[in-house]
Amino acid sequence: MKTLYLSARQENTARIAAEIIKKGGLVAIPTETVYGLGANGLDEAAVARIFEVKGRPQDNPLILHIAGTDQIARFAHHIPRAAYDLAEKFWPGPLTLILPARDFIPRRTTGGLDTVGLRCPDCPITREIIRLSGVPIAAPSANISGKPSTTTAEHVRFDHDGRIDAIVDDGPCRVGVESTIVDLTEPRPRLLRPGGIGPEALLEVLGDLVVDKAVTAQIDRDAVVKAPGMKYRHYAPQSEVVIVGGSREKAARYIRAHFEPGDRVLCFEEELPLYEGCAPLSYGQEADVNTLSAGLFAALRELDDPRIHRVYARCPVGGGVAYAVQNRLKKAAAFHIVDAEEEA
Ligand code: TXA
Ligand code: MG
0.85 exceeded by the pTM? Predict the structure, then answer.
């Protein structure tokens, strides 16, 4: 199969992409978070191809991307007031709402669940593709399962060239980590995955929020969890990743003392001078957490190299999108964290 490359700036791109979706094809779509691997979410055969191409476990549900708040009731039922409050405040944007699914939504799309994730992406070309295709677009992050997510069209090309119908290129993703997922199917709203919208902002609207255990700890492969995706090893390069916490100086002392040839250091731009000779790679500025979230997956992909033995990673502190960066790095490190303050 020859993969078609479409620029978001070209006039007929949305129309061409929508035609492919309508025919049951696979189109990589840009969003503000990460690139998704999209197909008609109501077409079982098309959805099956997403799982196949990604190498994704069948029980891991896909998010349905919709064009606006007015479409929530088309795909979900028993919608609490909180869903509309959140959608009004954060859509289009990096927030996915889990709601009871209408019966006509294929259980292949929902991973066999009776709930569905809905999200309206903050990306005009993708909303246009959804509108023109007339169907909700099911799309996981476009990376091959288990690998760091795709934040450029080039990442998608690397993983899927010749295996999908088209890639719509809209440049690098602005947010760079996936959407925040909130489950609204229980009496208390539950955070299943931190993302582009921070927990504090959610709390302000909801007044209550349970943080699911899958967010803060390593989950057993056989465990029953609310967001099946959270139990799989994720976001990770091939090498071992170790997060080193603590002050700049103490972390540098610890890493330099343990560094061996073949290791790499993933750090903040401000720290580069501290790691001369340790092959440091910066993923953004500590002073601007948005650059860290935007740069994280590209850096993890660069470090996905069998020749690398171990990666020492520096992680931002704080809430907002930093909370999501912490979560992705901890997952990549399988929660292997060293506190340089205690080690020193
Ligand atoms: O930002 C995003 O959300 C990106 C872009 C493409 O929109 N998509 C994305 O999809 O990250 P994916 O498939 O890589 O991650 C979706 C996560 C998985 O952990 C999955 O288990 C969870 O959402 N999920 C989807 N539907 C769910 C449901 N009905 N109940 C619980 N968790 C669900
Ligand atoms: Mg993913």
Answer: yes
